[in-house]
Task: structure prediction
Amino acid sequence: MDDRSKAKLNRRTILKGAVAAAASTSVFNINHAWSKDVLWDGKPFDAGGAQLHMAEWGGFWEESVRKYLLPDFEKDFNCKIAWDSSFPWFPKFAAGGPKNPPFALANWNLADMHKTARAGDYFLPLDDVLPNIPNAANLWDFAKVTGLGITWAYGRYTFGYRTDLIDAPIKTFKDFWRPSLVGKRATYVTVNELQMTFFLTACAVYGKDQYDTKAGYEAMKQLAPVKTSDFTGNMQALLERGEIQACVQWDGEMWAMEDRGVKTAQYIWEEQKPLLTQTRTISKYADPVQKKLAFALMDRTLDPKVFSKFAELFYLRPTCKNMDVTPKMTAKGITNTADSIKGFWIPDYQKYLDHSDEIEETVNGIFAG
Result:
């Protein structure tokens, strides 16, 4: 990656600078509520009707969390959940600055999480979070690798395809580039993390490593013309309607389609093994009661009995060693063992963000033809 791209002055660069400047001018008040240490011993407590402000996905996801997690939690802790599903979260954090976070708890895509962390001191470091999350003692190491948040669920990246339309199954990463799929395959818009990860994986597979952007650009050129989607749900619809024959996806979405009777199959990437994660952070300067509630909710999410409900609904894989794989996932051949997580790879989104303007402009130009 060429560091000359950092010299560009554009809207995004100006915004990043403004956010950093705002954060640096904040005055630390030792008497402010957030300056107090907050610890949680793993036991329910009376929050006195306080609200826990959290950011997480909407739609069926929110409906499921409200059904299987929140009612008991609100009762056990005498609290209410204030839910915001209007992604992205970054502008909302940036608007108030680190000392005035909009949410005590937020669920992230990793690239957006790192982008926010780079703009200010927003998140409680994981070393300070983990002692307050009893169930975190069972986490696999990869679930803690960001140092910012706990990855509590994940899926594997894959190429999904229509078995009744494609000329032959996809059996390797490079099969997605075969000539018979020209104009019949799809990936995501460049601001979607799935496309970022797809690009970095292509850099690694076609080049010398994930930083070989020249190889990545050439791979995107060979892929075009290609359809693009905003999000995974829309990608499902494109595949189901037969508007495409193959696409970038994650394994849970493809299994859901297969179990609905759609004629699909998938190739889960093996050349590189990036993960599509669900990762939650706790805001460093959240109100003490909200911070304590955030510890408790994150801990309950890692309870095997609670997690299994979401795993069954969304085909999610667990990040704790003591969790059993659900029957639905077991039927797909999924296990939760040390061998099953070997080779997992978290791309360097920090380095990507250093060069995101150049990468996205270049790839957008390629896709636009």
